[in-house]
Write a structure and sequence with these properties.
There is one protein chain. By secondary structure, the protein is of the alpha+beta class. The protein has a single domain, classed as Spore Coat Polysaccharide Biosynthesis Protein SpsA, Chain A, CATH 3.90.550. The chain is globular and about 35 Å long.
Length: about 150
């Protein structure tokens, strides 16, 4: 869908996850903090040693990881076919793949979106079942490029 919106000329793309509760000012926060050459995410971190021990960024710091939920970016990203070349075994790790793609195939910065988001707590959340895959991907593709 983001690729279709980019092809139609939309500039800004905002993603939220289905387990996120966004405040009424969320879209305005995104609009106010948009930078054409930067991907911002509520979940912007630096992965230093282990995916599960990453450090949250301050709003002006640059990192090597942006999560897909609460994400703001330029739609041009979705016009590059390299974005869609994720290895099949990692297709569900969209957060790690976009972080890898940004660091290796673009000049986009990764920063934190300064906004508030709360979450619906669910013990069946997808990420909880992907602990090993996320660690494996970050070790193979993210950490060896820092």
């Amino acid at each position: 869908m983001a690729k279709d919106l980019a092809m139609q000329g939309y500039e800004k793309i905002i993603f939220i996850d289905d387990d996120q509760k966004i405040p009424v000012e969320f879209v305005q926060d995104c609009y106010d903090q948009y930078e054409e050459d930067t991907v911002k995410s509520f979940y912007a971190h630096i992965i230093i040693g282990d995916y599960w021990k990453k450090e949250m960024l301050d709003p002006n710091e640059e990192g090597n990881y942006v999560g897909g939920g609460g994400l703001l970016c330029n739609s041009k990203i979705f016009l590059d076919e390299k974005l869609f070349e994720c290895p099949k075994e990692y297709w569900i790790l969209d957060d790690l793949w976009i972080s890898y793609y940004l660091a290796n195939f673009t000049n986009y910065k990764m920063k934190r979106l300064n906004t508030k988001i709360s979450f619906i707590k669910d013990s069946m959340a997808t990420a909880k079942g992907l602990k090993q895959e996320k660690r494996e991907f970050s070790n193979k593709y993210i950490l060896n490029r820092v």
